[in-house]
Amino acid sequence: MVNYTKHILHNGLTVLTHEAADTPLATVNVLYNVGARDEDPGRTGFAHLFEHLMFSGTPQVPDFDAAMSAMSGECNAFTNNDYTNYYMTVPSQYLQDALRLEADRMKNLKVSAKALEVQQRVVTEEYKQRYVNQPYGDVWLLLRPLCYKVHPYRWCTIGIDIRHVSEAGLDDVVAFHQRHYRPENAVLAVASPLSHDAMLRMVEEAFGSEADPAAAEGEAMALRGNREHEPEQTEARELTVEREVPTTGVYLAYPMWDHFDGRFRACDLLSDVLSNGKSSRLYNRIVKQGVMTEADAYITGDAGDGLFVLCGKLNEGVTVEQAQDALRHEVRLLAEEGVGDYELAKVVNKYESTFVLSQYKAADRALALCYYTWLGDTGLIDREPAEYAKVKADDLRQAAMQLFVPNHENRLIYLAK
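^ that's the sequence the OP posted. Answer follows.
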């Protein structure tokens, strides 16, 4: 069990503290309720751009990296379609300084024209390296708009067009920060060997607002707004491209349910039945049989309407049609015959062990506290494995029947030149 307390400050900031006796370090994790899904379709890539700009400094602390080095700490951030997360880990004696540093850039970030220009070049170069010059790098630039026609998941965090970032003006960036980087739009988790009371006092000192007892009685921040649903797909879609890659790839993507639907966990376990390890179905029936050199099945894991993806790289002499049929055959078996109790127990147990290991470090527990609070149920940090254990074999079969529908299929054929 992860021990934690939850408070909401008068300024709206949700605060979680975790007494971590297993580490001499302190972690400050801040999750902002802003991701690529919150962008204007004509101005995309801003959430990811801001991940970089948040390290630009403030009038009080012009060099963020130097301040972190002075504390012998480390920091980083990541952006996805749903949210943006920042963390810093320092020796626990510097926790108050780390909190002040985080509060300062939340309230006083100063983005200069020069800093914006530097980060625009950095992001543009990242786009070239990760999406343009990487084999199979543009798969998601192609697959997302193929699968989504309305939902803002139709673009990657890098954006629809890199020019949206490269041509962004200073006023655009300042407005984005003022709109999204606010206490009431964030969750802060602190993990350290200090007491809950001591950590909360430090947070209140840094962020300038005492805890509101009345607010703490209710549920903390949950996913707000932006709960769009993609209209039901009525016919299969296909896109074929040709690229300089080692071998042809096939991607079959099916729209699935959001994280708040009971079928989400069944889909997650279905992906493990298909491709988690060398005892999985795709490995034994497709890879070992020489149809593909590799095959995978996974869910995108988005909070909103996600995707269930089947993919693989073709062996020499295998046609695209043969590869697609092999993948479809496996999911059809799931819908018609389901899975056995032993097979289900195996993937549930594997999920539980992976989940426990994912919370091995206090920094990981801080992130998990922020994430589950953002989802609207902090207690899932302890209950999630038990929720997965409730899923029955028939739940998987029913989910497969509803999921792998021919008219819901999105095919990306990635031909090797």
